[in-house]
Amino acid sequence: MIHTVQRGESLAVIAANYRTSIQQLIAVNRITNPNLLFIGQKITIPGLPDPNSIPYSIVISISLKRLTLLMNGQVMKQYPIAVGKMVTATPVGDFVIVNREPNPGGPFGVMWLSLSKIHYGIHGTNNPASIGKAVSLGCIRMYNEDVVELASLVPNGTKVSIRP
């Protein structure tokens, strides 16, 4: 996968967001000075496929509290979700799924799908009554059976667009 460096990003931030090491990024990209990145620079992220090679994509509407799964640009399924509350809003932007963890436990339910923004993900819940509300710390909550279904379909590298 290729990441395009944005304003304010460092190699440490990029490594954290994609759950890889700075050393791996330096080696794969043959970076001679890790303190010298420029906006628009292309960084190869090891271990993730090109998102454009994946037929699935996800669009999340914060206001509608809905996650839409697309296959080849066509709506395949929609799921109700919970989103971040006002103080801990769900981040808006374009991300990818970078890894997953079954049975993370506690408030994360039966599945965690990490997004390419550290500390954020799509996950199940131990509080199904929260679905349809703005109550999370910024993550996307789903019913456990829905997140299991979603995780069985979408691979790591899947695009996730979060919109207001």
UniProtKB/TrEMBL annotation:
Sequence ranges assigned to domain LysM in this UniProt record: 1-45
Pathway: Cell wall biogenesis; peptidoglycan biosynthesis
Domain L,D-TPase catalytic, chain residue ranges per copy: 56-163
Pfam families xrefs: LysM, YkuD
Record PROSITE patterns: LD_TPASE, LYSM
Keyword Glycosyltransferase: yes
Keywords: Cell shape, Cell wall biogenesis/degradation, Glycosyltransferase, Hydrolase, Peptidoglycan synthesis, Transferase
Gene3D superfamilies, alphabetized: L,D-transpeptidase catalytic domain-like (2.40.440.10), LysM domain (3.10.350.10)
Catalytic machinery residues: H123 (proton donor/acceptor), C139 (nucleophile)
Domain of life: Bacteria
The family this protein is said to belong to: Belongs to the YkuD family.
Name the record gives this protein: L,D-transpeptidase family protein
Provenance organism: Metabacillus halosaccharovorans
Lineage: Bacteria, Bacillati, Bacillota, Bacilli, Bacillales
